[in-house]
Amino acid sequence: MTDTPRTPSQGTPPQWTPVALSRDLAPATAIPVIAEGTELALWRGRSGRLAAWHDRCPHRGMRLSQGFVRDDMLSCLYHGWRYDLEGQCRKIPAHPELEPNKAICVPAWSVTEATGIIWVSETGSGAPPDTGALAPLRSLTVERSEDALRDHLGDGVVIEFDGLHLLLQGLPQGRCVLHALTGPGLDAAGQRAASHRLEALRTRFEDSEDIA
Amino acid sequence: MKDCWFPVGAADDIPSAPGRETLLMGEPIRLFRKAGQIQACDAEGRDLPVTVAYDHVWTSLGTPSQPIFAIPEAEEPGRRFVPCGHVRVACSPLRAVENFLDIAHFPFVHTDILGAEPHTEVYRYEVKIREEEDEVWATKVRFYQPQAAKAAEGGQEIEYMYRVPLPTASVLYKTCPSKPEAWDVIAIFVQPLTETTCVAWPWMALYDDTSSQADLVGFQQMIFLQDRAILENQVPALLPLDPGKEIPTRADMTSIAYRRWLKSHDYTYGAQLEAQ
Amino acid sequence: MKLYDWVLSPDCYKARLLAALTGQSLTTVATDVFPGKDHLTPAFRDMNPRATLPVLVAGDLVLTEVPAILIYLGGDWGGDNATERARQAEWLTFSQRLAGTLGLARRIDMMDAPGDLAQAQRDGTRLLRQLEARLFDRQTLGHAFLTGPAPTLADIACFPDVMLAPDGGVSLAPYAAIRAWSRAIRSLPGFIEMPGIPRLHELSPEPGA
Ligand code: FES
Ligand SMILES: [Fe+2]
Q: What Gene Ontology molecular-function terms does this entry list (chain B) (predicted)?
């Protein structure tokens, strides 16, 4: 239990938040993620390029993370407005002949991918931390806040615990994503064993009286 | 908005006293049947006005100045009335109505049923506020549909008219596949539970001698559930009434008029205003 | 074959989806469960005393339990040896638990069915976590589906209630492996949708492109 609230920006700005493992975002897909309390649509074009935007279509507010990707364009699921990787609206299907107004643009965050991890940042200054040769395993959500987990696990970007290397992504409402990495070169059986350890860790955190 | 009529139940499904509890604009109310009459009261036991129309029970927390709106077409002989049950949705009641007024989403949300790519174009149509009735009307709306209704085979261009007689009720008229000189009537009656949750009661009055009731209800439920998946993902949940928050195009003229009409009447339960 | 069907029922959708994926045609009989309560009529109860949907009628055979319907429609999707059949049976049972938790949450949240919503959501979340862990294990073997390299009854039985979890207020955002599995199923040739489980529009071409 902690009584002193920790501000997430404490320590080292600029902030990059790990939001997904590269392996979990295939080409031509979009997913919802949350960074610093902001809901974002994270998506990858068919070419592999990434974008992270406010998860809200400027037209009628539909979550863009529910949209679909054709080539390097994301289309909103509601009326099909189509946006390029820069967030610029390029097509409004209700008016096929119309060149969309340049002002129709979705606010974007910076996004970068390194050693199998996707990071986002509102300002985009600096570079995300280097996780070296560690191999991304899987991400899982714990029903405990980042602060509560850090009180238990300690600070630092990559936290070593129980043979796993953990990146923390705090979510609203007292939840936190653990992005688990392992040492390099694990075979399939080793990966499964590590995944089962991660599951056990979550159970321990959620059952623990000390982590509220 | 308190003085408007709101749908709160299916007329054939009101139990006898003590009846059933539900919410209207955040207030608990009770509906019950007594001496063959449907009645409603608020949490303090105060009687609320009740009217039964179009297979549904309507009430109000205030004092409605008018009887419930008329749907003259529904009185025509030979129509089948199809109440389609109810579905709760986590969205503003006003967003639910606005979605009902929208056709541009058909190819993406009701794919291969009410619309299909590449037929995505929304042609120019007419919108006005009819001052005398104080209703929003959109007419001469045309859209290509691959399967316009249960009884329709193959694609055709369909014509629609939309009207909004109450802040949370809308009626649409569309080309009737089996009787081209008549209009099918499809309505959505929305019960505001809170500003961000509502219950939708779809209702139809059709000329259709061939489809089973189950087919007709199933068709409408399928369409509405497809909309529900959208409605629960609009951000913010409240309907923004100030221009600038969202970007409409010519295809959204009905929605623009609806928002203006809401604002001019101060119908803002479920709406987001500048200050927020 | 005749399927007594309700468009909003994930259980009915399982039968229609499996038939579509295996290229079988079903004659569906729309049943107005809500608000019509057609399933409570004497005629329907006579056919299925439990008064549930779906019901599959094939000649003299009347099937009312979803796993039985899937086994009947599944043909060689159901496994050709005891180990595989037993594995699938585990998931068929698991899918019934999904229906009793996530499916229940959806019926409560959407249609006022009686029950404890928070409890159904919690129990359903526990099952989603189990499924996610299992699908990750499968990924390490290079497999997208639950029991084999190709989809089986296990996948079809679990897919609908999982995909409709958001209808009952349970988010699927935390489950990367489930997301990949859902894309694999929705990409199958012959896939059909149900309200709440849309097709992948990215599989159709951009008009004019
Ligand atoms: S809300 Fe996105 S296209 Fe209309
Ligand atoms: Fe719709």
A: dioxygenase activity
Quick one: which atom of ligand 1 is closest to the CA of A76?
Answer: 2
Whether residues B235 and A61 touch (CB distance < 8 A) is answered with yes
Q: Looking at the predicted structure, is the pLDDT value of residue A199 above 70?
A: yes
* Chain B residues near residue A59 by CB distance under 8 angstroms: 246-249
Q: Indicate whether B108 belongs to any domain.
A: yes
Residues B165 and B264 in one domain: yes
Query: Is a pLDDT exceeding 60 seen at residue B237?
Result: yes
> A81 CB under 6 A from ligand 1?
yes
How would you label A129-142 residue by residue, b for 16+ Cβ within 10 Å and e otherwise?
bebeebbbbbbbbb
Number of domains in chain B: 2
CATH 1.20.1050.10 corresponds to the domain C78-188 = yes
Q: For B130-187, what is each residue's pLDDT tens digit?
A: 999 999 999 999 999 997 555 556 788 999 999 999 999 999 999 887 788 889 999 9
CB B161 within 8 A of CB B137: yes
Establish how many alpha carbons lie within 13 A of residue B214's alpha carbon, considering only the half-sphere containing its beta carbon: 15
- A180 alpha carbon, distance to own chain's centre: 13
**Is B131 among the domain residues?**
yes
The mean pLDDT value for A162-173 works out to 95
CB A51 within 8 A of CB A111: yes
Give the separation between CA A51 and CA B156, rounded to whole angstroms. 39
Evaluate if residue B72 carries a pLDDT over 60: yes
- A window 139-158, beta carbon within 8 A of B: none
Distance separating alpha carbons of residues A49 and A73, to the nearest angstrom: 10
Task: Kindly report, residue by residue over C36-75, the tens digit of the pLDDT.
Answer: 999 999 999 999 999 999 999 999 999 999 999 999 999 9
Range of the domain at B25: 6-59
For residues C22 and A1, the model is more confident at C22
Based on the domain organization, do B34 and B101 belong to the same domain? Answer: no
Atom of ligand 1 nearest to the CA of B234: 1
Residues of chain C with CATH 3.40.30.10: 2-75
Q: Could you give the strand order of the β-sheet that contains A117-121, starting from the edge strand earlier in sequence?
A: A17-21, A117-121, A108-114, A50-54, A38-44, A29-35
Q: What's the pLDDT score for residue B153?
A: 66
- Which pair of structure tokens corresponds to residue C207? 């008009």
Nearest by CB to A69, from C173, C202, C209: name it: C202
Is the CB of A53 inside a 6 Å radius of any atom of ligand 1? no
**What mean pLDDT do residues C18-35 have?**
96
Question: For residue A2, what pLDDT band results from cuts at 50, 70 and 90?
Answer: very low
Q: Is the CB of A43 under 6 A from ligand 1?
A: no
Domain(s) labelled CATH 1.20.1050.10 in chain C stretch across 78-188
CATH fold for domain C2-75: Glutaredoxin (3.40.30)
pLDDT of residue B152: 58
Q: What are the tens digits of pLDDT across the range B195-220?
A: 999 999 999 999 988 999 999 999 99
> Is residue C198 scored above 80 in pLDDT?
yes
Comparing CB atoms, the residue among A78, A95, A96 nearest residue B230 is A78
**Residue C208: pLDDT over 90:** no
Contact flag C202-A28 (C-beta cutoff 8 Å):
yes
Q: Is the CB of A60 under 6 A from ligand 1?
A: yes
Same domain, B216 and B118: yes
Touching subunits for chain B (3+ Cβ pairs under 8 A): A, C
Give the strand pairing for A17-21 and B56-59: unpaired
Query: Which pLDDT does position A210 carry in this prediction?
Result: 75
The span from the CA of C7 to the CA of B218, in Å, is 6
The ligand 1 atom nearest the CA atom of A92: 3
Residue A42 Cβ contacting ligand 1 at under 6 Å? no
Complex ipTM tops 0.90: yes
**Contact criterion met (CB < 8 Å) for C206 and A71:** yes
What pTM does this model have?
0.95
Q: Do residues B46 and B149 share a domain? A: no
Distance separating alpha carbons of residues B33 and A195, to the nearest angstrom = 58
Assigned domain for B242 exists: yes
Q: Do C179 and A68 touch (CB under 8 A)?
A: no
The answer to whether the CB atoms of A20 and C176 lie below 8 A apart is yes
